[in-house]
Amino acid sequence: PLTQCSSDPHGEKAPLVLVNGTHTLLVSAYLEHRTGKREVSEDNRGKRVAYRCHLCCEGHNISTPLHISEGHASIHWDHFGFRYGTADIMCPIPPACETPSHVTVTSADPPLFLEVLNQEERKDSFPHNFTLCMSTMFDFTNLLQLVQSMEMLQLLGVSRVVIYKTSCDADTQRLLDYYTDKGFIEVIPWSMSNHLKVSKSWKPEIAPGDLHYYGQLPALNDCVYRYMYQSRYVAMHDVDELILPQSVDSWNDLMPLLEQKYGADKCYKFENYMFPHTFKLPPPVSETHHRLRDKENPTWQGISGVNILKHLYHEPYTNLVRSNFKVIINPRAVIETSVHGPLKLLYSCFFFFFSRPPMQTGLTPDKLIFDGRVLGYSARLIQAVNTVLREAGLIQKDSI
């Protein structure tokens, strides 16, 4: 029997514990105040095993026996056809162990326990109003768009960004370190590719593998639970996406309007326009007020990546695809989530959404639609980006 509780000796935030004798990886553990204790895991959908939960209770010492209960697994239905899918393992908590500090499943040798997070339920006064879950970062080099996105998010009212990182280039790592030191970004090392053959796509027929898109789904589910009691709202989108209000300046201004109309603490879906990077077109003549003066239009030479201020035309709307949207959610309402929104909710949420298709092939420039909304932030954005690039040591003062 296991008698010693211990967390990951390297202090990793998501240590990915293999359950011996199974095809299961444990990602994290959270105390579920709404339905019961929950672990986020990766599981082989074709295998069914019996799990035993070993709970370390508050005040546990080496002479105290562990509390053992039978674990019940539930695999999320949105696995995109891959062999492995995100799963929840529910571990019942016995009356004598109301506050478990660590948990492991079955008898891994040597035992490696996951710390049980979310010990305290919180219903208001959150440290963050908006947190963005951004996953997953794999061989990332799009430096300019990353810094532009981070600065745009701060202009919109976001105070924390969570990135599940597998690999990136040296300049991106320098930028991540800069934002981590500022307290804006939390980087979760994401080593799923060390355990499974992760796919580079969202469908196995496009890019073979055992798990959807570098383990994106367990990362998003972990992020929702990790910030469930740290943030009033959680948004989920990638570095090349932004939720831009049309009539107000920030999410802080937008959410009261939505809450007043639809109710507070809901889940909201937003329409997603695709701005092709293959076109760099100036604003039309009729939109001269959107044009940037030369001194306001830096080139950022030597900085790799996409400049969002150069891509101002989006694809036309079609009804071909109705699932490509982005969300801002109340995490305390969510039991399971996928890329484009919750799969399972604790209670009903209102979804305010329109959808936009993925990039349409064969479009010519005359078919694209101008949208200069991002230029409304350009003066503040350019100044902020220049400051970050200088302070992070990525450009010299006289290079702009």
From TrEMBL:
Known EC number: 2.4.1.-
Keywords linked to the UniProt accession: Glycosyltransferase, Membrane, Transferase, Transmembrane, Transmembrane helix
PANTHER family for this protein: GLYCOSYLTRANSFERASE FAMILY 92 PROTEIN
Annotated source species: Myripristis murdjan
Membership in a protein family: Belongs to the glycosyltransferase 92 family.
Superkingdom of this protein's organism: Eukaryota
GO CC, alphabetical: cytoplasm; membrane
Pfam families: Glyco_transf_92
Record has Ribonucleoprotein as a keyword: no
Name of the protein in question: Glycosyltransferase family 92 protein
Compartment(s) of residence: Membrane
Taxonomic path: Eukaryota, Metazoa, Chordata, Craniata, Vertebrata
Keyword Iron recorded: no
Single GO MF annotation: glycosyltransferase activity
Membrane topology, as annotated: Single-pass membrane protein
